[in-house]
Amino acid sequence: MGLWQLRLSILGTLAIIIGLSTLFFSVLLWWLGVDLMVLPFLVIVFNVVQWLIAPYIIDAMYRVREVSKSEQPRLHEVVEKLSEKSSLTKPRVMIANIPIPNAFAYGSPIAGSRVAVTSELLKTLDEEEVEAVIGHELGHLKHLDVQVMMFVSILPAIFYYIYLSIFYSSMFRRRDERASGGTVAIGMASLIMYLILTLFTLYLSRLREYFADRHSASIVEDGPRKLSEGLAKIVNSTRRMRHARRDVGTFSSFKALFISDPDRAEADSAAISHTVGYRTDQRLVEEMLRREVTSFDRLAELFSTHPNIVKRLRTLRNLA
Questions:
Q1: Per the residue annotation, which of 120, 128, 137, 301 is the catalytic one?
Q2: Is 128 a catalytic residue?
Q3: Which domain covers residue 202, as residue numbers?
Q4: Tens of pLDDT, residues 208-259
Q5: What is the pTM of this model?
């Protein structure tokens, strides 16, 4: 997918999400009256507050701490250099003490922008691969992905809360006060709308991962190769950390932040021999690229926040 195709796909997906939401919500208001405005307002307020304080929640859950330049001079140097290339103010540099190799960018107006790498990532990847991963995360900050994904996530949440409110109000009413057929239909339509918008939101999330990959490739020398090797090693290492994945899985609500989905590591690395080690990082990438993308893989990808790893590596190879 070319750069302009990717941009048009992102804009088109955003337009569909906003257009469908606006159309359905307008019909809903026409049917039920303006009193329904209270519920979306509460949902929006809840999500905005959650966005503002989310960095502090993430810091607590993933045991994240800010590291000084004296502790991690090379990491600070890389973030500073790539931030300048990205025309960004240098974000705060964080280390997450979780036992899988990964990285993520996050922030809010009150917490500021942050880039975090896990302690395990620094042990697993070479310095050049860490640089490419940082380039990817700065791409998310450059493209305002945290804000965009927060905005589009509010829309399906509104319809889900409408469905829940109708469902529970119907449950707790007396038999002779049960919701009318029209209200039940609105509840079911809201649930269907939630599912449709969720699929579009997941698709948008995958597109933005490709976009962040492109950013890394554009600001890091030999970026496609470095990022390919980094991603392959992250997936392969995470696959072998079954117990650690279960621990991190407890916080799966934030996995969309990660550069690679830890829940997909087993399936993504299925092409790699479990008994024979790989001699070079590039050999590991080649093993993954040899895997065929099946119909099941494509179906599973529809419900994932991240692209299929084979498709992602092929896109990076085309960029190279």
A1: 137
A2: no
A3: 3-319
A4: 999 999 999 999 999 999 999 999 999 988 887 765 555 555 545 567 889 9
A5: 0.84
